[in-house]
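User: I'm writing a short report section on ligand binding and want a predicted complex to refer to. Could you take this sequence and zinc ion and write out the structure as C-alpha cells? A short remark afterwards would be nice.
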Amino acid sequence: MAASPEQFRGQARLPLCASPLRYDLRLRPDLGVCAFSGSAAVDVAVSAPTHFLVLNAADLFVDGSSVRFQDLAPSEVVQFEEDEILVIGFDRDLPIGEGVLKMDFTGTLNDEMRGFYRSKYEYKGESRNMAVTQFEAADARRCFPCWDEPAFKAKFKLTLEVPSELVALSNMPVIKETVHGPLKTVYYEESPLMSTYLVAVVVGLFDYIESSTLHGTKVRVYTQVGKSNQGKFALDVAVKSLDLYKDYFATPYPLPKLDMVAIPDFAAGAMENYGLVTYRETALLYDELLSSASNKQQVAITVAHELAHQWFGNLVTMEWWTHLWLNEGFASWVSYLAVEALFPEWNNWTQFLDETTSGLRLDALAESHPIEVEINHACEIDAIFDSISYDKGASVIRMLQSYLGAERFQKALASYIKKYAYSNAKTEDLWVVLEEETGEPVKDLMITWTKQQGYPVIYAKLDGHDLLLEQAQFLSDGSSGPGLWIVPITSCCSSYNAQKKFLLQGKTDKVHIDFTASQSAEGENAQNCWIKLNIDQTGFYRVKYDDELAAGLEKAIKTKKLSLMDKIGIVDDSYALSVARKQTLTSLLRLLNAYRYESDFTVLSHVTSVCLGIDKISVDATPELCRYIKQLLINLLLQAAKTLGWDPKDGESHLDVMLRSLLLIALVKLGHDETINEGVRRFHIFLKDRKTNLLPPDTRKAAYLAVMQTVSTSSRAGYDALMKIYRETAEAQEKSRILGSLSSCVDKDIVLEALNFMLTDEVRNQDAFYALGGISLEGREVAWAWLKENWDYVSKTWPSSSLISDFIKSTVSQFTTEEKAAEVSEFFAGRIKPSFERALKQSLERVRISARWIESIRGEPNLAQTVHELLQHEV
Ligand code: BES
Ligand code: ZN
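Assistant: Sure. The C-alpha cells for the complex follow:
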C-alpha cells in the first residue's frame, strides 16, 4: 500500500497504533491581542509498526519545523482542516515502544465560546479579556494537538505563562510559581489519567471563597471581583454533594481540589472539567435579594450535576460519544438524588418529571434518535447533547432503579465505578455489572430502551376482572411505529397499598384485578374504583385508558386520591394523546377541569404548560372559540393564583414561592387583564424605587411580561423602561429576565426591534436564546423573516450546535401549517449543517404535527358546546 497521509481522511476515529500516555503542555495566552502560543511534549506509546502519527488539530498553526519524535524529524506534517487531523509522516517505521513527540503551535483566542476562547468582563469600569477553555465535546484540538477522543486517557502536566497580576487556574493545584516582571510561570501538579475534553484553563481576575469537605478536599468558588458573596450558596451545595457522592459511589473524590468558576461568556450552562468546573453566571451565582427561587434551584441542580460527573464521566468515562448518555443521563439522574437529600422540601423527585416529560415529548417524534447513537464525525457529536441523552437517559435510569430496587442499584453502581475507574466503559459494560449484582435480565430489558428510538403507549381496557394491555410505539403525528419494548408495568387499584409489578414482554398481556381486595382496603363501592398504571410515572411510557378507566381516574383526581406524580402523568399523557389525535381536545378540557382545586406547584407546573400549549394551538385552530378557551384556562389557574397573591408571605414554602411566579406568568401569557394591570402597576413603582418590596425577583418576570403585553409602537414607554433596567443592571439573572420578556410583545415592530437588539454588543452571544424563547405568536412571522435575513451572520456567530439550534427551534416550531413547513424546508435546502440538521427536521415535524392537530380540532363536534358548558359551570 502506498503510504500517504490521505489514507487517514474521512475516518470517524483515530488509528490505534499510537496512543498518548502523558502530555507536558505549556500555554502562553496573550489577552491583549487574543492569541496564544504553546508547546507540547507528549509521551507516546507506539504499539504497532507505523510510518505515521495521527492526532487531532483544528484552527491551529502547527509549526512543522518544530516537530520531533525522539530525535526523528518528520518527512511531512500535514493538516486536514475538514477532518480536524494532523498527520505526521516519517520516512521509516517508528520503533514499537515509548517515545516523546514534541511540537510548537499557535492559535487565536476566539470569540466562539469553544476551544481556547476569550470572555469579556468589566473591572473598575474598563473592559477586560479573560482566557477560558471549553473542550467538550471535541474542541481540545483547537487549543493543542492531541488525541482528542475520550478513550485516549492520559496524564496532563500543565504550565501557563500569564500576566503576573491574574489568577490562573487549571485542573490540578499549583506546585510552583515564578514571577519575571509582568509575567509569571505557573506550574501545576500532574493529573491522574483523564480524557482531553476535561482539560481546562481559566486566566483572569477573580475573587474566591473557600470551604472544605469532610474528607478534606478544598473547594473554592471564583467570581467576578466583589461578587464572591454570591458564590456562597453554590459552595455549600458543592461541599455537601461531594460528601454525599463519596458515600453513594463508595469512592472518594479523586483530585486534591475542586474549583468552580463563573464565566461571563459561556455557551452551555456549565462544564464538568476535572477539578475546575466552569459555569455561566446564572448557573452558579445566587443572591438572596436578587435571585428567584427558581434561580436557586437551577444553581443547586447544576452544581449537583457537574459534581456527579466527577465520578460519572470524569473518573469513569464513556468509551465513545455513542455512550454520551452514560455521562449526561446519569449525571442528571444523580443530581436529583443529591438535591433531594439537601433540600427535601423541594419535592425534587416530583420535579424530576419535568425531565421525563420533555424526554417523552422529543422522543415522540419520528426525527428523534436512539439513546445510543452512531457518531461518524466530530461535528455530529454536539447535536446529541439533547433531551434524549439527558432526559430520556435520566428517566430510563429511574425506571431501572425502580425495577431493581434502590439498594441493589446503588451497590451495583459503586462496583461499576470501582471496576472502570480511570478508564472507559460502554453502555453494555454497565448492564453486565448490574446483571452480576442483581441476577436480573438487565441487558435484555434495557437494550429495548437504549438501542431503539421512541417508547410505547400502553392501551389499557377492562374486561371483567382482567385488565387488557397492548403496547404500540407512540408518535405525536398519530401513526404507530414498529417498536416493541420490554416494559416494566406497575399498577394499582383504588389504593396504593396493593401494587402489582411485572414485565410486559410481548405486544399484549393482561393483569388480574382484585376489586374486592382494593375495595375493602379503601372501603369504597365499585363505582369509585380507579386503576392507575405506571405508578408514580417511573416508567418511560404513556398510558391510554379506555373511557371507563379514564372516568374512574378523573374522579380519583377530583376526590384527591392520587399521588402528585400520578396526577402529573395523567394530564401529560392526556395532552400528548390529544396532540397525536388519539383523544379529543374536548375530553382533554374536561379532564383539566378536574384539576381546578389543585394547589401543588409540581402538579400545576404541568397543568400550566398543558394550558399554554392548548392556548397556542387554539388561536390558529378555532379563532372564534379561542377567547372562551382562554377564559376557561384562566379560570382553572385563577383560584390558586388568588390564594397566593403577588406578595410573599412570611414562612411560606419554597414551592409556594415557585408556584406564585409560575401562575402569574401563565395568567399574563393567557391575557388575564387583572393580573396584567397589577403587574404593570407594580412595575411602575419598581421603576421609581428598585428597592421596593412590591416586586421581588420571584414575581418580576410576570411584571415584565405584563408590561410588554401593553407595549405598542405608539406607546413604547414600557419597552424603553425595561431597556433602561437592562442597561443599568450588572446581574446576569436580571438581564436574562428582561431579554426573555422583550420579544413577547404583540406589536410586530417591537418584536423586530427586540430581535435586532439581540445582535448588538449589548447582548452577549450566550444570551441570545433567552430573547428567542419569548417570541409571541403575533411575532412569529417577523422572527422568521428576521432569521432568514440574518442567517449568514447568525450561523457564523453562533456555530455551536445547541445555540444555532435554538434559533431554528424557537422561530420554526411556532408555525402550524404545511405551507409554512414547505417554505422553511425550501429556505434551508442547501444551507443545512450537521450541527442543526436534526433540530431543523424536528422543528418541521412539529409544525406538521400542529397542522394535523388543528385540522382534527376543527372537526370536533362537541368542542364549542363543551367549552361553554364548562365556562358556565365556573360561574
Ligand atoms: N457536559 C455538559 C456541558 C456540555 C454541554 C458540553 C454540551 C458540551 C456540549 C454539562 O455537564 C451539562 O450537562 N451542563 C448542563 C447543565 C445541567 C444542569 C443539565 C447545561 O449546560 O445545560
Ligand atoms: Zn452534564
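A remark for your report: The mean pLDDT is 96. The longest strand covers residues 18-30.
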